[in-house]
Write a structure and sequence with these properties.
alpha+beta, Lipocalin, 2 domains, 4-stranded antiparallel β-sheet, 5 helices, 18 strands
């Protein structure tokens, strides 16, 4: 028998998902009491995996366990897909779960051609001043242990608005993906290579919600909007955590692309933008549109 780590409901050993809360029952580990050491992992971009520059990226975590389940550390990613420079890690270990926030010193994004550039380079290319490199958005990881030495889960970057020095703003969308990692050694001086021996992820060990969040569902179109109205709507959608994508000329734009990539710059060269939302958020999105129409 094993118990759900969230609600405590008992299940037979072969059960994989809690019927009450939908959380995974895989890897309810009791002997992983600290994460100190070196972990090798891989992350991918889920539904965006086939886009240029979005292939799986290997990484190395060097972690040190602290008090009350908290841990800190560093992360480095392998070229050519991974981000350069060393990032910082702050997280929490609890029973069969671990979660942490990754912060990279320099932020990157993909331009309209699918090329990865720094946020600063992107802003300058759009005709706006930017004197220094900007850090990445916080990247939130959560994972479930498959056994004492292997963990897998999902990562998330929230939608945000980046203020520009000339008083304007740039919008970026929400982005999600899968990740996994395995413990390699307690020797913090080691320099391991390679990656997890298991596949990047096993969907059967994740909840339906986690898989849907990363791989997505068929989005619902709200119609075509001019650039100014689209900017205002997407700002409201971000405040209400409404999941969205944008289309122009029947070509889907990825959620990682800012609105400037769709409009051709802050001045705007695209006349109309098709906004699509998650079916569960459609009713709330249409209420926002209806309220705006009544103004």
């Amino acid at each position: 028998m094993k118990k759900c780590p969230y609600c405590g409901k008992p299940y037979p050993d072969e059960a994989k998902v809690c019927a009450l809360d939908g959380n995974s029952l895989a890897g309810v580990v009791r002997d992983r009491t600290k994460v100190t050491g070196i972990w090798r992992g891989v992350y991918g971009y889920g539904r965006n995996e086939k886009l240029p520059g979005h292939g799986p990226a290997a990484f190395t975590l060097k972690l040190k366990q602290g008090w009350f389940g908290k841990f800190t550390g560093t992360v480095t990613e392998d070229a050519p897909v991974g981000m350069p420079d060393m990032g910082s890690i702050e997280g929490y270990l609890g029973s069969a779960k671990m979660e942490f926030t990754k912060q990279m010193p320099v932020g990157y994004m993909f331009d309209a051609n699918g090329q990865r550039v720094t946020i600063r380079e992107y802003i300058i290319a759009e005709g706006h001043p930017c004197e220094r490199e900007m850090p990445s958005a916080p990247i939130f990881y959560q994972g479930t242990f498959l056994d004492a030495n292997r963990v897998q889960g999902t990562w998330l970057i929230h939608a945000r608005r980046i203020p520009l020095s000339d008083g304007q703003q740039m919008s970026t969308g929400r982005n999600v993906g899968f990740w996994c990692a395995e413990f390699i050694t307690a020797d913090m001086q080691a320099s391991p290579t390679g990656g997890p021996k298991e596949p990047l992820f096993d969907k059967t060990l994740l909840s339906d919600k986690e898989v849907e969040d990363v791989e997505g569902v068929e989005l619902q179109s709200l119609g075509m909007f001019n650039v100014a109205d689209a900017e205002a709507l997407l700002d409201r959608f971000g405040q209400k955590n409404i999941r969205f994508q944008m289309k122009r000329d029947d070509s889907a734009m990825t959620e990682m692309m800012p609105i400037t990539a769709v409009t051709g710059g802050m001045g705007g060269t695209a006349e109309l933008v098709n906004i699509l939302v998650h079916p569960d958020d459609e009713a709330d999105a249409r209420k926002i549109i209806h309220r705006d129409d009544q103004v």
